[in-house]
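FAQ: What does a ligand-bound record look like?

Like this one, built around zinc ion:
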Amino acid sequence: MRGLARTKLAKSIHDAGWSAFVSMLEYKAKLYGREFHRIGRSVPTSQMCSVCGVVDGPKPLSVRTWTCGACGAIHDRDHNASLNILAPGRAERLNACGGDVGPGAIQAGPGEAGTRRRDVA
Ligand SMILES: [Zn+2]
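The answer part, i.e. the structure of the complex:
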């Protein structure tokens, strides 16, 4: 694989490696009862302030720490990106009532607010 990664197939090889890694991660998460979510590749996780949500714009990889122009928060690039990746996963995990909304449909509990039943005549 290392040899193929040096050819013009490098992008495909690395994509296949990443895909296998993500598949294993998904499998392990399911095995151990953990949540697994994917976020879009286009989400600017390292450019977005994890405090106020403002997208500060692209930065070269050499910029490891930056200050948000909107709220003044000082971010470590990787830690900020990890918070931006975690946020949508947490948002999907629970609904406002604390019930699961996460992968797949679940049956509504008896006390959960929902559609009023019609009276059957
Ligand atoms: Zn900010």
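Follow-up question: can I read anything off the structure? Yes, for example: Residues 49, 51-52, 54, 68, 70-71, 73 surround zinc ion (CB under 6 Å).
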